[in-house]
Design a protein that fits this description.
C-type cytochrome. Part of the cbb3-type cytochrome c oxidase complex. Belongs to the CcoP / FixP family. InterPro entries: CcoP_N, CcoP_N_sf, Cyt_c-like_dom, Cyt_c-like_dom_sf, Cyt_C_IC, Cyt_c_oxidase_cbb3_su3, Cytochrome_c_Oxidase_Subunit. The protein is mainly α. Helices cover 56% and strands 6% of the residues. The strands form 2 sheets. The chain has a two-stranded antiparallel sheet with strand order 1-2. It has a two-stranded antiparallel ribbon with strand order 3-4. It is elongated, with a radius of gyration of 35 Å.
Length: 316
């Protein structure tokens, strides 16, 4: 925080307390020239004003709030850049990356620093980590029988995965797979789903426009669409079949893909980037680069185990 804002906040905060102090002193002083309890000479509708001070209990409360306010300002970081005598922080300030934030968080937890976020994280870890450790001892396929574990995995999925795959896990066009249809790029076993979540995936398909030319791409598109039973120009498809040998290195000669490489099955009419002729042509022309981030550092392996359980349950 800049010096200007530090001064601005300090002046307003301290000025308000000082102003309240003098206002209270002024109201407690009898400057009317009339003894306390006597009439002030004002009367309206039979009501006479008397010279009475504030009630004593009310005055005491005012003094307490003023003392409390001063103590709070100096104990906590309330005056701009001032850190406070107690060293309390709501969270780590000034971190510039996720790695730096995690490092500072772990340091505060280990040091027992009075950092509100670190205290909350430690409390949550002490409470929930033993539960996740117990879940992690059970294989994913077996853990799907535990409804509570599946619901925990669902909540973690909604917090971390639904942004791309949707709250219903049915994915969306643009490279975000449907997780409910048993069509898997890298394999749908519990172990493979965990591997995907832990390490992430980076699927790269090169563009073929320079190699095939526009006519060649049209021929391969026709052949690829024919693999899933689509009506196409037979002459184009026949010509594309010979060119498809270049694609078979990843997708296989039968076009059914290769889960070891993350190469999709081209025969099931399921398309990550759209299955229209135009969309498939765009894919062949320019290629695709699908990236799924790794969640090992974000969630940890025990929580990933529970998320994998929920994902596995969707299609099994």
């Amino acid at each position: 925080m800049s010096m200007f804002w530090t001064i601005w906040i300090s002046v307003i905060s301290l000025g308000t307390i000082v102003g309240c102090y003098f206002l209270l002193r002024w109201t407690l002083a009898n400057k009317t020239g009339v003894d306390e309890g006597d009439e002030m000479g004002h009367e309206f509708d039979g009501i006479v004003e008397l010279n009475n001070q504030l009630p004593r209990w009310w005055t005491i409360l005012f003094w307490i709030t003023l003392v409390w306010g001063i103590g709070y300002l100096f104990a906590y970081p309330s005056l701009g850049g001032y850190k406070g005598l107690l060293g309390w922080e709501s969270s780590n300030q000034g971190v510039l990356s996720l790695e730096e934030s995690e490092a500072e968080l772990r340091k505060d937890i280990n040091d027992g620093a009075w950092n509100e976020y670190a205290l909350e994280v430690k409390q949550a870890e002490d409470l929930f980590d033993p539960i996740f450790e117990e879940y992690a001892k059970v294989p994913v396929e077996e853990l799907t029988k535990n409804d509570e574990a599946v619901q925990v995995g669902k909540r973690l999925f909604l917090q971390n995965c639904a942004q791309c795959h949707g709250s219903d896990a049915r994915g969306q066009r643009g490279g975000f797979p449907n997780l409910t249809d048993n069509d898997w790029l890298y394999g749908g076993s519990g172990a493979k789903i965990k591997e995907t979540l832990i390490n992430g995936r980076n699927g790269l398909m090169p563009g073929w426009l320079d190699a095939f030319g526009e006519q060649g791409v049209s021929e391969v598109v026709a052949y690829v669409l024919s693999l899933s039973g689509r009506d196409v120009d037979t002459s184009l498809a026949n010509a594309g079949k010979s060119r498809f040998a270049a694609c078979a290195a990843c997708h296989g000669m039968d076009g059914k893909g290769n889960q070891a490489l993350g190469a999709p099955n081209l025969t099931d009419n399921i398309w990550l980037y759209g299955g229209t002729e135009r969309a498939v042509t765009e894919t062949l022309n320019y290629g695709r680069n699908g990236v799924m981030p790794a969640f090992k550092d974000t969630l940890g392996e025990d929580k990933i185990h529970v998320v994998a359980t929920y994902v596995y349950s969707l299609s099994n």
